[in-house]
Write a structure and sequence with these properties.
Elements lengths: L11 E4 L9 H14 L7 H6 L5 H8 L5 H20 L11 H10 L3 E5 L4 H10 L8 E3 L11 H10 L6 E5 L2 H10 L2 E5 L6 H6 L4 E3 L2 H9 L3
Parallel strand pairs: 1-2, 1-4, 2-3, 4-5, 5-6
Amino acid sequence: MPPAVRSSRPRLALFDCDGTLVDSQADICAAMDEAFAVHGLAAPERHDTRRIVGLSLHEAMRRLHPAGEDATHGALAESYRQAFRDRRSAGSLTEPLYDGIAALIADLAAEGWLLGVATGKSDRGLTHCLATHGLTDHFVTLQTADRHPSKPHPSMIEAALAATGVLPGDTAMIGDTAYDMEMARNAGVRAFGVSWGYHEPSELVHAGAEAVADTIDDLRALLRTMA
């Protein structure tokens, strides 16, 4: 593959985390099961839990337990946070990087890209995840559910653009869910999907993805069209 040409313009690649950078579904499903059990509720189907990855916790609980009241959704969200904290404290979180992600991040940084994350994770969860994989220093903007409305509201991307000074047309949002693609469209930035996460490629296209990468090399090639 030919080397990339370094652009004279600043470019920003914003990554979703769960389902895009790391495969966290085992931990998410386990924590969700524990949260529902605390309140004497039947655990959601694993497929349904995968469907809400990327949303803010309160919105996720509203979708998983539509019969519940707002207070119940808040309590479920707090129980989920506690379950995740317990797993983190016990050292049982896995959240492995997808193959090739570390090399891609290093390559993009070397090519002069600014890198960021826009995720439904908490500040604490994202900080722990990036530090575990030695990726923290590559990212210049981290936007989480602690400080923004749920995806697909464009707030996370708008904050990243303001923090970096990069134009929307020179920014790409990379994610695995329809929420990521809708958020990108709402913010006026490029939308690239990945097929290795939690929503089907057809859903990503329907939500506004320009293209969906099946491999890391596919994603690298898509980003290089922005040079």
